Queue: 2 jobs
Job 1
Amino acid sequence: MGLLTIGSFARASRLSPKALRLYDELGLLRPARVDPLSGYRLYDPRQLEQARLVAWLRRIGMPLARIRVVCELPAAAAAKEVAAYWSQVESDTEARRRLTTFLIDYLSGKDTAMPDARTTLGIRYAVRSDVGKLRESNEDAAYAGPRLLAVADGLGGHAGGEVASAAAIDALRPLDAELPAGDLLNALEHAVRQANDAMRHIAESDPSLRGLGTTLTAMLLSGSQLALVHIGDSRAYLLRDGELFQITHDHTLVQTLVDDGRLTPDEAASHPQRSLLLRAIDGKQSEPDLQLQDAIAGDRYLLCSDGLYTVVSAEKLREVMTAVADPEDVVRKLVDLANQGGGPDNITCVVADVVQL
Ligand code: MG
């Protein structure tokens, strides 16, 4: 069969000639031949299948750069890539849904950032940080107070890590004493920006600390809501009705590979680059994840550094958090378990129970 003009090919593929020209320019779908004299694009009927694939991927909202990747893959790998894209869309949508609900309430005058007189919730908390068995110093830092819970895992080695994690906690600490006037998420985001500025100043004033940075996972209680800020590979977990949910997403290379279906979680756990962070508070661009949780009496939260969860399995975490009542006993038990498992890294955990006051 001969080549089709752009008009006939557009009709057959149900794409507009304008779209076809765009896809050509973007390298998504090159014409089989371009007439050297007229410049007309000519298409092979065998290209119809790829044209339809591009059209479908556009309809599910996939960005053009990612479509290019899918088009170059064999069918089975393309299917995986589309699945990975969609699960990312769903998790982004879920985060946006929570923020939207919050904004609607906030703008309708139901100021959820203000304490609600009907529900007086508080937290019962405990915190423990331990150097572990192999490290010489503890570069983790943590904080737990009546409103604020935070874990930071410093990077940069030697003094740098310690300075960085302490600076991040210092930037958040005022939030425990005085609730911000505006909304919680803004307050947390602002604190992260301050921590990020602090990192830059420290690195500039002391060249031996260059390369310092820190993870930060923190929660702030106000009224019936808990705001969460997260950057790096420390984690927050929620124990509700006997089930343990990881509510943060690691900003690591291996997690991205797992999300894309290129590594299994087991392979990620033993990957040589498993601790490589894609995001941290390091004086450069530090964009945290933000989310809101409804504070529900009976919920138990765990914030921890990777020194805990890389050694103690999620099932074991769930078991201890379910079986042990007092938060102080829980953090002691968890640190002991990580040390019994070799304690290769600093171990830090904060456990907090949401309680009716
Ligand atoms: Mg660590």
Job 2
Amino acid sequence: METSIPHVLIFPLPLQSTINSTLQLAELLCLAGGLRVTFLNTNHNQQRLLRHSDVQSRFEQYPGFRFLTISDGLPEDHPRSAEQFGDIISSLQSVAEPFLKEMLSDDVAVTCVIPDGLFYYAVDIGNEMGVPVIIFDTISPSCLWVYLCLPKLIEAGVLPFKGNLDALVTNVPALEGLLRRRDLPHFCLLDYRTDQNFQAVFKEIERIPKAHGLILNSFEDLDGPFLSCIRSYSPKTYAIGPVHLNLQTRLAAKATPLLSSSNSLWEEDHTSIKWLDEQSIGSVIYVSFGSLAVVSRNEMLEFWHGLMNSKVKFLWVMRPNMLKGGESHDQLMKELAEDCKGTGYIVSWAPQKMVLAHPSVGGFLTHSGWNSTLESVVEGKPMICWPQYVDQRVTSRLVNEFWKIGLDMKDICDRSVVEKMVKDLMGTKKDDYKKSVETLSEVAKISVREGGLSCHNLDCLINDIKGLAR
Ligand code: UDP
């Protein structure tokens, strides 16, 4: 390969959601042409990706693209569950730090690094070695803005929160009057001096102004106020989302055949689509808590009873590792699948974008992961939110109170609440939420088309990278 062609090194978090959006970014850069792209994945996730997705055949058409893998430092039989996320990240750091140093010390190899925001050390190494770093933060911009305000909240003496969780949060401009304490990331209730999540977020936000730029998966019409605030810390903030829609639109414009486009780490169960084909339009609620959230057996049963009592048809993703404490859910899933026959259909992993695009799906009961939220917005499907970690509590509040495209169950898990919200979303309140989410969907489509801001921002990002030759 020629050395004068700019070479981008993409380094995502070892998570399904981040692998999804960063592979989409990688493909967008490949489509632009004139760039070499290396995607640095962990051995463990690369094996799963190659087994369950079509990435190999999809990326074969881009000669400038390659996968590179490193160990995450954990033994092969380590469960790597969401509950051990902090350990996975620090173990990966022990391998990735020296690896990046060596890779960047080759004076022509890499022109620009695009790491996840949590890999703060990649910014330090890039700055040390004179290689520009553009952070790709795949969480919601509103939550990233809350993160950037954490030092102010501490200075004002309001953290950690005690007392009334319904009290409104001050010191977060653009979100004042909207966010309650219970809408902040779960760790805001813990002690910032000792909590591991806080420490990681502090390191992340310190690096944002030190990086060359910042990429966010959103569009100006959705998150404009928060993007403006973030730009006061990182003027070169590129909002290029919804990234999956930007990619679909560019592939269609180039008449590149749209393959099934899966980046799954689990095997997708396509019988879910067959089952949806047999249901009537808008009649099904899709239930999924993403790739990480873990629930207790009791919570699972509250949702199950709530859904059954609502009498609304449902398609539910019960991931193999989704019960708290690593408990196997095989038996429970079998029993529930048997008992809900005729009303519900349960799979262990679904082709989610296809599911949300299906006309039989009328709503989404979600954990408010940022990818899931954007995918639902693009397909014009209103949501019921049951958020867990990181950005999900902020997002669910915005879904309900700011964008008005769904309901927020927040920290409640009760069968009667589930039943009522499902009935509301799929019945009495359906038209209002559907109308507002369909409007947002249209706006998202405009933003990624020629002349739209996400399309423009992506072009600016590509030009910026191309101008970084070493
Ligand atoms: N997803 C999927 N099939 C499923 C469940 C989830 O393909 O059965 C995908 C979904 O489309 C999304 C990602 O997994 O792109 C989950 O990301 P999100 O940010 O919503 O949540 P996280 O998994 O990080 O909590």
